[in-house]
Amino acid sequence: MSAILDFPVRPEARPYIEAFDHRAVTAEPDWLVRDRRRGLSRFAELGFPNRKSESWRYLDLQPLEKRPLIPAHAAPEADEAGLRERLAGLSLPERARRLVLVDGRFAPGLSIMEPRPGLWLGSMAQALRERPDLVRPAIEQAAADAAAHPFAALNTAFFADGFVLEVAPGIDIERPIEIVHLASGATSASLHTRSLVVLGAGSRANLLEIYAGPTANGPAYWRNDIVALRVGEGAELNRAVLVEESAEALHLAQTDIMLRAGARFAGFALLLRGRRLRHEANVAIDGEGAQCRLDGAYLVTGSDETNIVTEIDHRVAGGHSSELIKGVAADRAHGAFQGRIIVREHAQKTDAHQLSRNLIIGERAVIDTKPELEIYADDVKCSHGASVGDLDEAALFYLRARGISAEEARRMLIDGFLREAVETVEDLATRTHLLRHLARRLADLEG
């Protein structure tokens, strides 16, 4: 890969270039090798984004620049008994199809893979061998789109595995499918995963993705995750994401969603733990009458940082989108929401709404919210709004007057505030599961 050094390279990219040169050689197809080299070249040119970049102004990446986290060449040995115990606390109570990735690689011993006609579920590494017809177009398109996204380019260079889900046209998968991304805590490294979901016309599926690290404090790790969702004509995908990383983790997740005519997508993200978290969702409404709902909630404490970044691009007429993002920041934490809605010239009859509501607990916490509308059509219904405030003193007084402690009263009000967003999740089992994790997190809040 020395040819990449023929042009100026950003200093923070050099450790990753060296890691690419020394990575284990695998029998990969020529097209993927080319995409990997192209991705690394682009990352070497771009380097890390900084606060001068509008999209990255609310996240501090200097610690990662000062202390690179290099991808591991192979999966480290992990405590399987400990992983099973952690998995039991993370997974849905009822048995469901479940694909588990440990330190960015498929773990068949922890997964539950139940075959069904019309459903293909497997690891990205398996799909590259068995389903190149499915994954190659998505990877090549992502490689082309990564020109302005340095971490997506780096992901292309280094991803070791991920998951692939394909649902055939007309198939209805009723029970949620679980994807669990576990960090073992066995090593300090970066974990790059690339995944793909494809729903055929008229199909339906529920997806729950969980990102978690060890409960005990361990070495820092960096998760760099990219998921592409392709929802066909008249298909419906409900996706929920739960993030409970370890205390020193950096979590960067990018989801790219394409909706065809009449498709429905409902996405929800609950961000609860991690040193620095960034959840990015980019939606392209590419078919008439498609509907998109993007909701989220986060709770950030200590000196942690959490960002939610969304972009919904209405490219055709008759699309509908809505967003509800709710955030709570306590102690010295920093939360941020950046949401952009674009309505193209030919996207008449678009109906798009965005709302960000936030609570600050204490005098040193900070929340930034930046909703944006970019409208080039005239026959549309669009709105956005944002609010940042403290807990309702009258409500606190009401609860205290009934013998409830100040700490418990505060937890009850925060729970009620965030619950509104969680309850947008349609699947009952998933919604109940998320509320249970939210309750556990609130119980950990300091008085």
Topology readout:
Blueprint: H1 14-21, H2 30-46, H3 62-66, H4 80-90, E1 98-102, E2 105-106, E3 119-123, H5 124-130, H6 132-145, H7 150-158, E4 163-167, E5 177-182, E6 190-199, E7 204-212, E8 222-231, E9 236-244, E10 250-259, E11 264-273, E12 276-285, E13 291-300, E14 305-314, E15 320-330, E16 334-343, E17 351-361, E18 366-375, E19 381-389, H8 393-401, H9 406-422, H10 428-443
Parallel strand pairs: 1-5, 4-6, 5-7, 6-8, 7-9, 8-10, 9-11, 10-12, 11-13, 12-14, 13-15, 14-16, 15-17, 16-18, 17-19
Antiparallel strand pairs: 1-2, 3-4
Helix pairs in contact: 2-6, 2-7, 5-6, 8-9, 9-10
Number of helices: 10
Strand runs, count:
19
Helix content: 25-40%
Task: State the end-to-end CA separation.
Answer: 53 Å
Query: What Rg, in angstroms, do the CA atoms define?
Result: 21 Å
Strand line-up in the sheet with most strands: 2-1-5-7-9-11-13-15-17-19
The major sheet is characterized as: 10 strands, mixed
Q: Which structural class is indicated by helix and strand composition? A: alpha/beta
What order do the helices and strands follow? Answer: HHHHEEEHHHEEEEEEEEEEEEEEEEHHH
Principal-axes shape call: globular
Q: Which consecutive residue ranges, at least 5 long each, have pLDDT under 50?
A: none
The overall pLDDT average reads 91
Strand content: 35-45%
